[in-house]
């Protein structure tokens, strides 16, 4: 079969030996070819190689309609859109038809008449696979007319036809997607009566429009997406409709920081001309990803709502933007990410987590800072000894020199927007801090030394070894006990004399 995609009539198409096939057969055949050639079937989808993608491939081989069920930000729509890569590059359609009619098997009134009238002279056009994808977000106001169609009074008046004539039908999105992939996102949000209208399309492949004796055998691959929360909160998928969907595939969040990082770095826009001199430590990227892992386990965050992968994507962009702004203010061409820059990540977190009652009482910004702190605490022990165990050592406590510096009454204030020289000078003033970092972090690049020194201080604060106060413009580190007994807090303590002591005096 030799097709040049330049054939212009049905007769020319017949000479090529072209054989029509259904869209689901087309998807199946092209998937088989990719699997046999060892080609990637879905590109840029990480973490699903052994779970979701094999199930998806089995569903396509079975020629099933598919429901992708999972929490927000789990690449459901991305997967659906990539299914177009499994379609033939071009397919022939009757030129001018609304429903992408197959020249060998026309279904619309228009195409049937053209083929009957012109035969092999029927003009054809070539439809690219990118035009064979239709997506609709389900909302409560979607109607049957939107999806399937209805009689058009203007068309009836213009053509001077009665409403009983099928030529007055204005077809909806689904018939116009004939021979293509039709995606309905957030399926449970469709009203139950609208879901019922899909029964015939899924099972028999045809549509029924009120007032017409019309059977329109559509050729469609349906893909639905749904959030498990929707089954109980905003709506539900009616049981007969679920029964007609061949495969329901459950998606999930990345199971490791490495996979999560690949997703974020692929999707985030953080490589900009003005930040070419900005160094981004691997640890800072891991911290961004750890924030989302902490959020999914936090008692303040609604687990049923999920924590989208878009959180880490936006957070990475904001982290770089925070450093970029600091560099612009200080007219610096080179710099390194700092822990202080993570304050810029807070807005990326607050808009992407749903809080339970306790979280709302704390406040979204406080919860966001809490998640950043927990991420630091979790990753801290990958680089340094656990402070809680270290403080039990009578001798050789690795943090003794640093803690002694604070215990001597010293304080460290790190300005969020300090220039590099001031920032480094402040950290170098803490006795023993640099030596501790160099001792425990092997092969540390020179330009990451101060980032790691700052990380160490934040980690000690998370383990309650030092006190940390995070204010608008700076972060202050002090000795924990001197903070507890600060002169400004004396009014909180009861200094009433003991009766026994009074007698003795």
Q: Would you give an account of this structure?
A:
It is a single chain. The protein has helices at 10-15, 23-37, 52-61, 76-82, 109-118, 144-147, 153-159, 173-176, 192-196, 199-203, 239-244, 257-267, 282-297, 310-329, 346-350, 357-362, 364-380, 387-390, 400-407, 420-428, 433-440, 449-462, 480-484, 499-504, and strands spanning 66-69, 90-94, 124-128, 133-137, 149-151, 169-171, 180-185, 220-226, 247-250, 278-279, 335-336, 412-415, 466-470, 474-479. The protein is of the alpha/beta class and 505 residues long. It has 3 domains: 10-250, 3-Layer(aba) Sandwich (Rossmann fold); 253-380, Magnesium chelatase subunit I, C-Terminal domain (Helicase, Ruva Protein, domain 3); 390-492, Arc Repressor Mutant, subunit A, CATH 1.10.10. The protein has a 5-stranded parallel β-sheet, with helices on one face. A 3-stranded antiparallel β-sheet has the order 12-14-13. Strands 2-3 form a two-stranded antiparallel sheet. A hairpin with a 3-residue loop joins β13 (466-470) and β14 (474-479). The longest helix has 20 residues, at 310-329.
Record keyword descriptors for this entry.
single chain, about 500 residues, alpha/beta, Rossmann fold, Helicase, Ruva Protein, domain 3, Arc Repressor Mutant, subunit A, 5-stranded parallel sheet, 3-stranded antiparallel sheet, 24 helices, disordered C terminus
């Amino acid at each position: 079969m030799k097709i040049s995609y330049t054939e212009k009539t049905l007769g020319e198409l017949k000479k090529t030996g072209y054989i029509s096939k259904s869209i689901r057969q087309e998807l199946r055949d092209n998937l088989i070819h990719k699997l046999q050639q060892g080609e990637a079937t879905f590109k840029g989808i990480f973490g699903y190689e052994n779970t979701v993608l094999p199930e998806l491939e089995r569903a396509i081989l079975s020629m099933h309609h598919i429901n992708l069920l999972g929490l927000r930000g789990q690449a459901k729509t991305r997967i659906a859109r990539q299914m177009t890569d499994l379609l033939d590059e071009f397919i022939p359609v009757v030129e001018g038809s609304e429903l992408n009619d197959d020249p060998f098997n026309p279904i619309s009134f228009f195409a049937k008449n053209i083929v009957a009238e012109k035969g092999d002279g029927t003009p054809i056009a070539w439809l690219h696979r990118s035009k064979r994808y239709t997506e609709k977000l389900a909302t409560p106001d979607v109607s049957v007319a939107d999806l399937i169609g209805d009689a058009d009074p203007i068309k009836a008046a213009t053509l001077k036809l009665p409403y009983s004539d099928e030529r007055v039908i204005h077809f909806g999105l689904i018939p116009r997607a004939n021979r293509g992939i039709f995606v309905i996102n957030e399926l449970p949000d469709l009203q139950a009566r609208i879901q019922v209208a899909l029964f015939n399309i899924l099972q028999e492949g045809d549509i029924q429009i009120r007032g017409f004796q019309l059977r329109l055998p559509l050729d469609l691959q349906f893909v639905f997406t749904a959030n498990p929360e929707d089954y109980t909160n905003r709506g539900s998928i009616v049981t007969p409709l679920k029964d007609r969907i061949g495969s329901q595939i459950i998606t999930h969040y990345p199971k490791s920081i490495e996979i999560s990082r690949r997703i974020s770095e692929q999707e985030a826009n953080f490589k900009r001309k003005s930040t070419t001199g900005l160094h981004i430590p691997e640890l800072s990227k891991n911290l961004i990803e750890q924030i989302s892992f902490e959020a999914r386990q936090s008692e303040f965050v609604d687990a049923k709502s999920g924590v989208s992968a878009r959180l880490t994507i936006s957070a990475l962009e904001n982290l770089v933007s925070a450093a970029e702004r600091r560099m612009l203010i200080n007219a610096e061409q080179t710099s390194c990410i700092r822990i202080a820059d993570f304050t810029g990540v807070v807005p990326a977190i607050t808009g992407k987590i749903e809080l339970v009652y306790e979280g709302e009482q704390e406040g979204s910004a406080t919860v966001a800072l809490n998640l950043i702190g927990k991420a630091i605490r979790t990753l801290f022990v990958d680089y340094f000894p656990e402070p809680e165990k270290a403080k039990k050592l009578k001798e050789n406590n690795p943090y003794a020199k640093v803690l002694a510096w604070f215990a001597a009454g010293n304080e460290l204030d790190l300005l969020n927007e300090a220039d590099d020289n001031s920032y480094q000078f402040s950290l170098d003033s803490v006795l023993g801090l640099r030596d501790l970092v160099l001792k425990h972090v092997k092969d540390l690049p020179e330009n990451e030394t101060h980032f790691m020194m700052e990380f160490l201080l934040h980690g000690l604060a998370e383990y309650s070894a030092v006190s940390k106060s995070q204010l608008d413009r700076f972060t202050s580190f002090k000795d924990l006990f001197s903070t507890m007994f600060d002169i400004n807090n004396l009014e909180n303590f009861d200094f009433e004399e003991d009766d026994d002591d009074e007698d003795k005096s």
